[in-house]
Amino acid sequence: MQLILVLHNIRSVYNVGAIIRTAEGFGVSKIILSGYTPRVHDINLLPHLRMKLDKEIHKTALGAEDMLDIYSSGDIFCDLKKLKAQGWEIVGLENNINNSKLIQINSPSLKADLSDKIVLILGEEVNGIDYSFYDLIDQFLEIPMRGQKESFNVSVAAGIAIYALTN
User: Fold this and answer.
1) Rounded Cα–Cα distance for residues 91 and 19 (Å)
2) Which of 19, 80, 88, 161 is the most exposed place for a label (fewest CB within 10 A)?
3) Across the beta sheet with 2-8, what order do the strands follow?
């Protein structure tokens, strides 16, 4: 399976770094950063700001940020439409939604229900994926919760989802 991650509006540099490190460990093809997600090696930033941001992301990425193809999107909707036209299936990692396109991550038919080229969208830590993405998303993936909390940290959820999709 080929897997691309989209990190859209992730607020925390530490979550970004942790996701990058996990993605590298599982062999993710590419990471696309969009919205206000902190960028790594962003040439559009002033050098002192870029160095500060790179240093913060490095604290949790531990060098994985230099091992992956990481792209900063200026127009994520255009990029997703291009990927979809190239045969990539757009999957949103979300929870607590009522949607007919929802698949439980522990479903025995998970692999059969998804293609072998997946773009996995991870949304903002508190509010999840922005509704403006919903029309582009082919399937939603949900991690069932057993405790009282309603969600996992986005970097933890990313690790669970990447593991489930790649194994």
Assistant:
1) 17
2) 88
3) 69-72, 30-34, 2-8, 117-122, 89-93, 139-142, 102-104
Cβ burial 113-150 (10 Å sphere, 16+ → b, else e)? ebeeebbbbbbbbeebbeeebeebbebbbbbeeeeeee
Other Cβ atoms less than 10 A from the Cβ of 152: the count is: 17
For the CA atoms of 19, 30, 114, 16, the dihedral, rounded to the nearest 10 degrees, stands at 20
CA atoms within 13 A on the CB side of 90: 20
Q: Can you list the domains of the chain with their CATH numbers? A: 2-166 (3.40.1280.10)
pLDDT digits (tens, 9 = 90+) for 2-43: 999 999 999 999 999 999 999 999 999 899 999 999 999 988
**Mean pLDDT value across residues 65-88:** 96
